């Protein structure tokens, strides 16, 4: 996530360089006007060095703003050159007008330092602001101290104190901009990070739950016991099917499969916990359990079976192998919560309920059924029996359990239109045909 945010800032900086180049162009016009008004244009050296220098820096900023040429250290170099040329310009103006060097800070041209500080702030680089302001203060103090030693001008404690007062204003503005940009960058980073997390969550969670998860805060950042419905689904014969596909076609097949499976699950308020090849685990009831989690899981499971049957019919029409899927659902106690860090956050569930759901899904292959549910699911969603008859199978001993689990399968011969009453944003789901 940090890398993505840094890339966003780098892209913003490249665009900002064009804005800064326009600022330099305006500064160039101001300098030319000042030199003209003071008659300094008659001195080639006094005018050529600062004006020519700013012209070159402006063009360099425009050229390096291109993506292929932009490097992170370029803004630091250009900002340094801006300050150096401004110092040179102030010294030349003082020499041209014959005024004491320490009074050069009173000239309108000296105010360009605030323009350069603003340009550094536009780049959203707090340290570059400190660098620009600090370099100006240090270079000006060094210039004031060294010029008299070279026999140019003189200075006293009073004049030096006067210069320090003006430099203190530059320092205060620099610090204020540094604090403001630091806070703005931190806020923008937080916003970009949250936007990315919400985008990632939207791929796995129903849209109605994304905001709740993103805003869940510390209460959601720990595992907690709750009740939830767990759904496992797996394609039949996928291994042999994959052996006949080249890698590129297999990738397209899996992408298409995952899309067809995810949509009905998310539509019925489920969340995709994980994909493992052609297998999928989904949870109904996170981050907060709902009274109709078991019913939603069955609706989602039936919709998955229906989606795969429709896809299989399309493949048969294209003379491709048919597809079958097995879905197992169980409802019970789990330990649920988020796992991950700032780069990836996902909700998951662990516990015996998850293991039972996985075992039921595997049982669909042995019994030749498309979907099987446990008695706990049916007990928690008893209204399903009004729409679709469920046939009890003999109790099965699932691997790892000492007690048998009662399993039910749909009676495809005794059914009516499944009357689901999903919340706003869901669609009615009908059982697959048989």
Output the keywords.
8-stranded mixed beta sheet, 434 residues, 12 helices, 15% strand, elongated, alpha+beta, Alpha-Beta Plaits, 2 domains, 57% helix
Brief characterization of the structure:
This protein has 434 residues and is an alpha+beta fold.
Question: Which secondary structure elements does this structure contain, and how are they paired or packed?
Answer:
Elements: H1 2-37, H2 44-64, H3 74-97, H4 112-122, H5 126-149, H6 157-204, H7 207-214, E1 224-235, H8 238-243, H9 247-267, E2 271-276, E3 279-284, H10 293-317, E4 325-340, E5 345-350, H11 352-367, E6 371-374, H12 375-380, E7 388-392, E8 407-415
Question: What can you see in these coordinates?
Answer:
- By secondary structure, the chain is an alpha+beta fold.
- The protein is built from twelve helices and eight strands.
- Helix 4 (112-122) packs antiparallel against helix 5 and helix 6 (157-204) packs antiparallel against helix 7.
């Amino acid at each position: 996530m940090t890398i993505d945010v840094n890339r966003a800032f780098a892209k913003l900086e490249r665009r900002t360089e064009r804005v800064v180049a326009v600022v330099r162009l305006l500064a160039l016009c101001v300098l030319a006007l000042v030199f003209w008004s003071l008659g300094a244009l008659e001195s080639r050296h006094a005018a050529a060095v600062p004006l020519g220098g700013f012209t070159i820096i402006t063009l360099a900023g425009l050229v390096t703003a291109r993506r292929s040429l932009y490097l992170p250290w370029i803004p630091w170099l250009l900002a340094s050159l801006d300050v150096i040329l401004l110092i040179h310009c102030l010294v030349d103006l003082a020499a041209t007008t014959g005024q004491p060097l320490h009074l050069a800070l009173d000239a309108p041209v000296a105010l360009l330092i605030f323009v350069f500080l603003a340009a550094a702030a536009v780049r959203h680089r707090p340290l570059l602001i400190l660098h620009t302001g600090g370099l100006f203060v240090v270079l000006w103090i060094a210039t004031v101290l060294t010029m008299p030693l070279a026999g140019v001008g003189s200075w006293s404690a009073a004049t030096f104190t006067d210069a320090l007062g003006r430099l203190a204003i530059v320092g205060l503005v620099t610090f204020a901009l540094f604090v403001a940009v630091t806070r703005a960058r931190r806020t923008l980073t937080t916003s970009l990070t949250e936007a990315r997390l919400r985008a990632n969550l939207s791929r796995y969670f129903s849209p109605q739950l994304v905001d709740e998860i993103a805003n869940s805060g510390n209460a959601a950042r720990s595992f907690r016991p709750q009740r939830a419905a767990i759904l496992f689904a797996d394609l039949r014969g996928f291994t042999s099917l994959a052996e006949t596909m080249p890698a590129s076609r297999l990738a397209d097949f899996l992408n298409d499969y995952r899309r067809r499976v995810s949509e009905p699950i998310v539509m019925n308020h489920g969340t995709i916990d994980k994909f493992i090849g052609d297998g999928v685990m989904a949870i109904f009831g996170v981050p907060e359990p709902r009274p109709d989690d078991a019913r939603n899981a069955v609706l989602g499971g039936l919709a998955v079976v229906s989606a795969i049957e429709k896809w299989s019919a399309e493949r048969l029409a294209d003379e491709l192998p048919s597809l079958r899927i097995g879905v197992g659902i169980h409802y019970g106690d789990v330990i649920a919560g988020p796992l991950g860090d700032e780069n990836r956050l996902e909700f998951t569930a662990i516990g015996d309920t998850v293991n039972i759901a996985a075992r039921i899904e595997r049982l669909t292959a042995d019994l030749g059924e498309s979907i099987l549910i446990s008695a706990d699911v049916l007990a928690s969603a008893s209204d399903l029996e009004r729409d679709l008859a469920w046939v009890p199978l003999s109790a099965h001993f699932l691997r790892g359990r000492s007690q048998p689990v009662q399993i039910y399968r749909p009676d495809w011969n005794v059914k009516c239109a499944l009357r689901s009453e999903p919340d706003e944003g869901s669609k009615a789901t009908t059982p697959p045909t048989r």
